[in-house]
Amino acid sequence: MQLSSKQNEYILNATHRWNIKSGAVRSGKSFVDTAYMIPFRIRAVKGKPGLNVILGVSKESIERNVLQPMRELYTDKLIGTINNRNISHICGEEVYCLGAEKISQVAKIQGSSIKYCYGDEIAKWNKEVFQMLKSRLDKPYSCFDGSCNPEHPTHWLKEFLDNPDLDIYLQQYTIFDNPYLDPEFVKQLCKEYEGTIYYDRLILGLWKRAEGAIYKRFADNPEVFRCEIVDQIDQATEKKQFRKEDVVSIELAIDFGGNKSGHAFVARGYTDDYRDVIALASRRIKAEDESEDIDSNMLDKLFCDFIEEVIEKYAVFTKHGDYVEYCNAESVFWDNAETVLGNSIRNAVEKRYPWIAVKPAKKRAINDRIRCTTRLMGAGRFWMTEDCSSLQAAFTDAVWDKEKEKDERLDDGSTDIDSLDAFEYTIERDMKYLIQEVDDV
């Protein structure tokens, strides 16, 4: 088991009450913990009063990020699974494994002394959980190891780490501190995050505020992302082209605007193995007289007409009479905040296109959706046809809200958030396939 000089430095200096590593993804922050620190700490306090605890965003993330890597090194004889009492047996000792996203999830250890705690993805925790933890590390030998990726510079964890009066050892990482990464992987990851806030945070390990254009690479030159869907590739052209038959899955989404606001339609295609993501078409629908809303019947018709346009221009299908035997236009996702409108859309689509599944959007975390899209753009895997003028404008105009401490997309009516949401509804269920590391932060 080889450790980098940075990891060995941590082992030598992590002798404080709070020992935390902050910095880039894939920089080796967590490996030194799972390979050495956690089993060492648990053995060091064996038999002493107090609980051993591992806190993460969820029990699932603890299993994925902490227990499974340890199990690969030490086998399941030493590293157990989490039982129905939220306990895993590690090196012969009971260790509570609890999600820290909500204070209610750790209520069962309130009032208990903690002799050792390991923290995974600390910056994503509920602040109250961290406050509770500070009072529970109450033994002379109590200590904490943990790791995190940086967030904005006014984050509550950053304020804690910057307190000179506390017994904290803070070690900071860039991705270049891991000598065991494939240089080509590092090169590609840097390329994917280039020009975004994620480069500063997840490559350089800096606590930086999200400012300016969200999709800067796109906003600077939308034409770089232009493509055509054709029946036959023209070898003489330099334009990016895809054959219709290469688009294996087409899915559509609708985001409902608020009162007297517009509605957004988007169609998205995938090539095989989720390699390329293609924005095929988009529409921004607003009433000509903005003093009146578009009623549900009109909206149903407009959206079904949009589906028909997408199918006629981009879909591959076979029919026998009126029966559609095959069509790669597969699903529609609707904004689940508007159940009445959503049910109306579902009924209209299922009646007109019975082979298309109609489902409510999942509405995953917006920043996960943004990060996935920016990485696709950076990796050269996102494309857009000329039928996406409204979506192009939405990507170009999207900015971070400079008035908010947390990372939030500006949503004050000055930009077309609805089209961004609609596009994201078509990819959010597949983010773990599109970008394998989207949850690995």
UniProtKB/TrEMBL annotation:
It comes from the Bacteria. Coiled coil: none annotated. InterPro entries: P-loop_NTPase (IPR027417), Phage_terminase_lsu (IPR006437). This is PBSX family phage terminase large subunit. It comes from Sellimonas caecigallum.
